[in-house]
Amino acid sequence: MPPEASVHEIAPRSGTAFTLDKGERLTVIDPQGEQVADLLAFVRGDLDEVISSGRTLDYASRIYLTTGDPIYSNRSNVLLRIVADTVGRHDFLLTPCSADTFRIIYGDAHPHRGCFGNLAAALAPYGVAPDRIPVAFNVFMNVTVDGGTGELKVEPPLSQAGDHVTFEAECDLVIGLTACSALQSNNGSFKPIRYRIDPART
Amino acid sequence: MPPEASVHEIAPRSGTAFTLDKGERLTVIDPQGEQVADLLAFVRGDLDEVISSGRTLDYASRIYLTTGDPIYSNRSNVLLRIVADTVGRHDFLLTPCSADTFRIIYGDAHPHRGCFGNLAAALAPYGVAPDRIPVAFNVFMNVTVDGGTGELKVEPPLSQAGDHVTFEAECDLVIGLTACSALQSNNGSFKPIRYRIDPART
Q: The organism sits in which domain of life (chains A, B) (predicted)?
């Protein structure tokens, strides 16, 4: 990676939002290993267009996406393309963790707002309402499927310290990104996520 | 099933929408076998609340849903519950087929509008915009996942003539329902779907 782009850090159990211009590259880095980052992308100027797990998985005929794979919108346009990936195992099936997740799955009486709440708060200044948050592309999340029974298991991420995934924007976007807040997704501890934005290639 | 409720038929490659009151039961019937029906449910009075594959699969920890399983909304409320199911294999991963599906996957030059277009047209009078159509619960659709590679395959439905699934509404809903328009999902031919609505139990 070129050295000039500055690296930003997302604190454990938090999230952020920022713009990404067409051609720019977003690299999501797991600095310590075994930490998930939930990624959302909305089309800037028409926020009703957003990444779609249903269309992306349908067109890929695969639940595991990696280098070369496009991430489609609900209108079947490519919003992002994965151009580098040192891990190869990410999830696009499960919703961002939320207060409801912690209440329903973990039984927490006073649940954290989770990635959903962090994304909603970070995206609010861009005009994205909470109801518009779809299934996120869960970078480094390791969800396995038993082909026979259909059972889903959330396993420890395969990412090690320094592993990263790079996405290239195919149009001007608003991005939401978190350091995931669910214990099970991150092998029992909450760590930061880092990201960098590199300019479009000329 | 009690005999008094009338049975409605959805013609091949078409769709419809209707209201379903809390407690009422919707039975989706495959009259000839091997025919998929895409099902959507929106909360009446607040259409921004809609069924969510990401939340439902997360809370179920399973991709295959059947009798007893709830279908959650994007706000983690239960909208429908499956109360009877003679097949046990349905899909909640893939988006409704659309003109884009037929263009991208089938290479059609003049594509059919698909379940997406049929749902959008049927739901428009209820105030549902096309961008609000999420991943549908694809009744009788048989999508397998290879747990190792993550490959998705659309296999012939396991449903035979007369097979059916019954959903109970947990709140007042707007329902969208189709006879699916994709060749691969329906083992190569387009057939009708039937449905009936039975009153709430007193």
A: Bacteria
What's phi and psi for B72, nearest 5 deg? -90, 160
The yes/no answer to whether this complex scores an ipTM above 0.90 is: yes
Asked if A95 lies within 8 A of B52 by C-beta distance, the reply is yes
Q: Which of A185, A177, A182 is nearest to A29 (CA)?
A: A177
Please spell the DSSP secondary structure of B90-105, one letter per residue.
-B-SSPPP-HHHHHHT
The minimum CA-CA distance between B5 and chain A, rounded to whole Å, is 34
Size of interface A-B (CB pairs under 8 A): 109
Q: Which of B138, B133, B98 is nearest to B114 (CA)?
A: B98
Q: What is the DSSP letter of A157?
A: P
Q: At what angle do helices A53-60 and B53-60 cross, to 10 degrees?
A: 80
Two tokens at B117?
């277009």
Q: Do A151 and B54 touch (CB under 8 A)?
A: no
Q: Is A48 helix (H, G, I), strand (E, B) or coil?
A: coil
Strands of B15-20's sheet in order across: B15-20, B173-178, B37-43, B137-139
Listed in order, strand segments (DSSP E) in B73-156 are 78-85, 137-139, 142-145, 152-155
Q: Residue A101: CB partners within 8 Å, gap ≥ 6?
A: A95, A111, A114, A116, A182, B58, B59, B76
Q: What gap in Å lies between CA A40 and CA A6, rounded to an integer?
A: 21
Distance (Å, whole) CA B90 – CA B67: 11
Kind and range of the H or E run holding B121: helix B114-123
Residue B59 has its nearest CB partner, among A52, A104, A147, at: A104
Residue found by looking up tokens 């009422």 in the block: B24
